[in-house]
Specification:
about 425 residues, 12 helices, Heat Shock Protein 90, phosphoprotein, five-stranded mixed β-sheet, 2 domains, about 10% strand
Length: about 425
C-alpha cells in the first residue's frame, strides 16, 4: 500500500514493519547494520528526551529545577552518544556512563538520563560475556541495596526511601531482570539449534553409513557371484590350453584361449582389488593395488591382439603427467571402446589415439563398422558401454561422442586436464 506521500510501504505477512522505500524495495529493520540502528535509536532518544525537558516533565525530585537547559541537554546528550556503543562495547559504555549519571544526580536526577542509563545496564548484561554479565548483575544488585540503605541512613525519610526503591526497581532491577531473561531465552534457543544440527548430522552420518554398508554388501555379493564364473573360466581355459598343446592345435586357437585365460584372471584380480578397497580403511587401503591407468595400455592392447584383433596405437603423451582421475577414465574408455569393437565388429582393425591437446586429453577409438548389426546382448544391448563412457567423461566435465563416421565407428572423449588437476 502507499502512505500519504505516495511512497510504497511494505509490511510482512504478520503485519510487522518491513521497510519504507520509494522504489518498492524491501529492507527489514533487522537487516539494517547494528551501528546504524543504535545511531538511529540514540537520535530518537535525544529528540524524545529533549521533549521531556522542554515540557518540564523530567525531574525525579524538586532539586535542580534552576539548572540551565543547555547543561541538562549536554549531560543527556552524552548519555545518548554512549548508547551508540551499547552492542560493540557495552561494559565500557556503562562504566563511562557513570560520569554523566553522577553529574545528573548532583544537579538533580532526571528521568531521561536514568532511562537511558538503564538501557546501558541492560546492554551490558545482554551483550557481554557470560562471566561479565554475572559480575555486572552482582555489582548492581549490591549497589542497589547500598542506595536504599544510604538513603535511609542519611535522610531517615520514608518518602525518600520509597523514591529510592522506585528508582532502583524501575531503572536498575528491571533492566537487569529483563536482560537476563532475554539472554537466557537466547541461550536456550541457541542450544536447541545446536541440538537440532547435531541430530541432523547424526542422521546424515547414519544414512551414509547405511548406504556404505549396503554398497559393500552388494559389491561383496556381486563378487561372490561373478568371481565363481571367472574362476571357472580361468580353470577351464587352463585345462583347454593343456589339451590343445597335447593335440598340437592351431597356434591361433591356442593364442585366443590363452588370451581368454589371461583376461579372466586379470578381471578376477581387479574385482578382488575393488572389494579390498571397499573393505579397507586408512593405511590398509593404500596397500591395495591402484586402479588401471594408461601405463597399462600396452597390456590391454596385447590381450586384444592375442584374441586376433589388429590394433594400432598412437600415443602422444610425451611424458605428460596426467591427473589420476583423467588417467583412469581414459584407460577405462579405451578398454570399453576396444571391448565393444571386439564384440560388435569382430575381425575389424581398431585404431587408438591418445594425447593431450589444448588443455585436454583427447581419446579416439576408431574401427570399420560391421556389415551386419550385432545381435542384442543379454544385458540390454550395445548401449550400456556407451553410457558408461559418457558418464565417466561427464564426471570430469568433458565432452563425449560416439557414432558412425565415413563407414567407421568412432568413439571420441575430451577430458579436461585443468579441472582435474587436484586429483
Amino acid at each position: 500500500m502507499s502512505d500519504s506521500l505516495g511512497r510504497v510501504v511494505i509490511t510482512s505477512a504478520d503485519g510487522a514493519w518491513s521497510g519504507l522505500c520509494c522504489d518498492g524495495g524491501v529492507r527489514r529493520w533487522s537487516e539494517v547494520p547494528s551501528t546504524a540502528r543504535d545511531a538511529a535509536g540514540a537520535l530518537v532518544s535525544f529528540v524524545a528526551g529533549t521533549g521531556l525537558y522542554v515540557a518540564n516533565l523530567y525531574a525525579l525530585i524538586d532539586k535542580g529545577t534552576d539548572v540551565p537547559m543547555s547543561t541538562r541537554l549536554l549531560v543527556f546528550g552524552s548519555v545518548c552518544l554512549l548508547t551508540m556503543l551499547r552492542r560493540r562495547m557495552p561494559v565500557t559504555a556503562m562504566i563511562v556512563g557513570l560520569v554523566p549519571l553522577l553529574i545528573d544526580i548532583r544537579l538533580g536526577p532526571t528521568v531521561p538520563v536514568w532511562i537511558l542509563y538503564g538501557d546501558l545496564i541492560y546492554a551490558a548484561v545482554l551483550y557481554s560475556s557470560r562471566r561479565t554479565s554475572r559480575i555486572t548483575m552482582a555489582v548492581w544488585s549490591v549497589f542497589s541495596g547500598l542506595i536504599v540503605i544510604l538513603t535511609l541512613v542519611r535522610t531517615g525519610d520514608l518518602r525518600a526511601v520509597s523514591l529510592a526503591l522506585i528508582v532502583v526497581f524501575a531503572f536498575i532491577a528491571t533492566p537487569l531482570w529483563w536482560a537476563n531473561s532475554v539472554r537466557t531465552h537466547k541461550e536456550i534457543a541457541g542450544a536447541e539449534r545446536a541440538r537440532a544440527q547435531a541430530l541432523t548430522l547424526v542422521a546424515e552420518l547414519d544414512r551414509r553409513a547405511a548406504i556404505a554398508d549396503e554398497r559393500t554388501t552388494m559389491a561383496r555379493d556381486l563378487h561372490d557371484v561373478i568371481a565363481g564364473h571367472l574362476s571357472a573360466i580361468a580353470i577351464q581355459s587352463e585345462a583347454a590350453l593343456g589339451v590343445l598343446a597335447r593335440k598340437n592345435a592351431d597356434p591361433a586357437v591356442i593364442g585366443i584361449m590363452g588370451s581368454i585365460r589371461t583376461n579372466s584372471v586379470s578381471a578376477l584380480q581387479e574385482m578382488r582389488t575393488m572389494i579390498g578397497l571397499l573393505r579397507s580403511d586408512g593405511a590398509a587401503a593404500d596397500e591395495v593395488a591402484a586402479p588401471r591407468r594408461l601405463a597399462q595400455l600396452p597390456i590391454l592392447v596385447d590381450a586384444a591382439r592375442a584374441a586376433g584383433i589388429a590394433v594400432r596405437v598412437r600415443e602422444n603423451l610425451g611424458g605428460t603427467e596426467l591427473p589420476s582421475a583423467v588417467d583412469q577414465a581414459a584407460y577405462r574408455i579405451v578398454q570399453e571402446a576396444l571391448t565393444n569393437a571386439m564384440k560388435h565388429a569382430p575381425g575389424q582393425r581398431v585404431e587408438i589415439e591418445v594425447g593431450p591437446r589444448d588443455g585436454e586429453l583427447r581419446v579416439l577409438v576408431r574401427n570399420p563398422m560391421a556389415a551386419v548389426a550385432p545381435a542384442p546382448t543379454a544385458n540390454g544391448g550395445p548401449h550400456r558401454g556407451l553410457i558408461n563412457m559418457r558418464e565417466r567423461t561427464a564426471a570430469l566435465g568433458g565432452n563425449f561422442s560416439a557414432g558412425p563416421d565415413s563407414g567407421c565407428w568412432e568413439v571420441r572423449a575430451e577430458l579436461p586436464l585443468a579441472t582435474a588437476g587436484a586429483s
